[in-house]
Each structure stands twice: as C-alpha cells, then as structure tokens.
Amino acid sequence: MISKDELIGTWQLESWTIGYTDRDEYTYPFGEEPQGLLVYSNDGWMSASINRPGRALLPEDVSFRKLPDALKAKAFSSYFHYAGRYRVVDGDVIHYVTQSLNPNFPGTEQLRHAELDGQTLVLSGKDQVGGVTRFHYALFNQNSDRSASAVRYAMPAGATISNLSFHDVPY
Predict the structure, then answer these.
(1) 122 with 15: CB under 8 angstroms?
(2) pLDDT tens digits for the chain (171 residues)?
(3) CA 37/CA 67 separation, integer angstroms
(4) Burial letters for 87-121: b for 16+ Cβ neighbours within 10 Å, e otherwise?
(5) Rounded distance between C-alpha atoms, residue 80 and residue 140, angstroms
(6) Are strands 26-27 and 9-20 parallel, antiparallel or unpaired?
C-alpha cells in the first residue's frame, strides 16, 4: 500500500489510457505520447498538468486577450491542469481540487487508486459520462532513466488489451 512519503516529488507522465464499459477500445485523450507532470509536495499540495506534444504556438504579435476565441479554444483543448490539496487513504490518493483549467473541477474530489513499483507510479480511477463508465490509467515515472520494467493493470472482466507500447520522455 502506497504512503504519502513515497508520492512526494515530481513524476513524469508516460501514458494516459481510457477504457470503456460499452466498447472494446481504448482512447488516448492527449495522444499516444502525452507530456505531463504530477507534483506532490511534503506539505500536502499537488499539481497535475498534461498536454499533447507538438502544440501549435500562438501568434506572438497579438495580445492573448485579442486572439480569436476559436484559436484560444484549440490551444486550451490540448492542455489539462488541476491543483489542490491531497491525502493518501488506504492505498488511494484523493485530490481536493482548488484550481483548474476546467471550471467544473474546483470543489471536486478526484479519487485515484495508486500503485507503486520502484520508480513507476500507476494512478487509476473511474468516472461516468453519459451512462458509460470510463476507466482511466495514467503511468508516471519519477526517474525515466530507471523506468518501468513491467506494468500490471487491473482490468474489468472481459476487457481486451491491444496495441500497448512504451514511449520514453524526450530530454
């Protein structure tokens, strides 16, 4: 069972995969090679950020506030962030969201089951959207030079896994 002391530090995102109860497929919300950081502090704060690699740059000669809404929406849809307090309870991590790019997240509790294998952290959780249960699996490494040698996922009965791969973080 994971402890708070084992979480403290900065974790680099390696993958984020979502499975569904209504179909035998997985999706990758920010592509198959997402970038991101998860930071846990000793004093109980956390911050998570994820983005698609290769995001288009915004024009440098125009103030951000004067950019067309469609251009800003495209930039924001390729990035995700939230932060707040956290605590560890019986092998789970609860994130108490106070700030987020998504205005619906502040005030929510994000429950994640946490498993640690050396320098590899797997956070899993589930939610419901439109009556469909989604299973989220995010894999992080604290030191990519000593990255995962094996990963184990607890999958729902009848689930099929295909096209799995590993992508190291670019330095």
Answers:
(1) no
(2) 899 999 999 999 999 999 999 998 999 999 999 999 999 999 999 999 999 999 989 999 999 889 999 998 998 999 999 999 999 999 899 999 999 999 999 999 999 999 998 889 999 999 999 999 999 999 999 865 434 444 555 667 777 766 665 555 554
(3) 27
(4) ebeeebbebbbeebeeeebeeeebebbbbbeebbb
(5) 16
(6) antiparallel
